[in-house]
């Protein structure tokens, strides 16, 4: 069985029990040094988890016992979903999982978990004002905030580019439209 939880070697190091810095892009003022790639056995209850989705990063709170509370939102297609508790494997969908570690939460892990569970069943997902990242930031710091949304709205031209790209990805036939994010990232740096 392939595990979605892998460790990569640190620069000049070997694979082992070390936590490495992932190769994910900075966004919304967050730097790569604020993320840690982890295995399931390294997850601490109350951790802010992040996993890649097509075109965005999905966020959840690890509540222990292999379970994650997250805002399903658009994670299951165009039909929005509620805040729910799911197995870690369902949350990651076979992708690597990172722990956002930029700053300590304002609450202890027990309170972070209590806050996450207090919203299970809520079904008020809004992409720009109440998404999975807003949910996690509220659980950890008491303030709903999405760095992805802030980055998206930082420039109207960039927002339009992201919107067009997202729509193209929804309707893309694999192999017919090149939507390689690495190539797009290089184009954005010009």
Explain what this protein looks like in three dimensions.
This protein is an alpha+beta fold. It has two domains: 1-146, Alpha-Beta Complex (endopeptidase fold (from Nostoc punctiforme)); 155-190, no CATH class. Helix content is 29%, strand content 19%. The protein is built from six helices and six strands; from the N terminus they run E-E-E-E-E-H-E-H-H-H-H-H. The protein has helices at residues 88-92, 109-118, 132-141, 147-153, 156-171, 181-188, and strands at 35-37, 48-53, 56-64, 67-73, 81-87, 97-100. It has a six-stranded antiparallel sheet. Strand 4 (67-73) and strand 5 form a beta hairpin. Helix 2 packs across helix 3 (132-141). The longest helix is centred in the last third of the chain and has 16 residues, at 156-171. The chain is globular, with a radius of gyration of 17 Å. Mean pLDDT is 73; it is low at 1-35 and 175-190.
* Main structural class: alpha+beta
Count of DSSP-assigned helices: 6
What is the N-to-C succession of helices and strands? EEEEEHEHHHHH
Q: Based on CA inertia axes, which overall geometry fits?
A: globular
**CATH architecture type of the largest domain:** Alpha-Beta Complex
CATH superfamily of the largest domain: endopeptidase domain like (from Nostoc punctiforme)
Measured as a percent range, the helix fraction is 25-40%
User: Largest beta sheet, briefly?
Assistant: 6 strands, antiparallel
Q: Which CATH top level class of the largest domain fits?
A: Alpha Beta
| Rg, nearest Å | 17 Å
Instruction: Give start-end ranges of low-pLDDT stretches.
Output: 1-35, 175-190
Instruction: Provide the β-strand percentage band.
Output: 15-25%
Mean pLDDT: 73
Strand order of the largest sheet: 1-6-2-3-4-5
The first-to-last residue Cα distance is: 42 Å
CATH topology of the largest domain: endopeptidase fold (from Nostoc punctiforme)
Total number of strands: 6
**Number of domain units:** 2
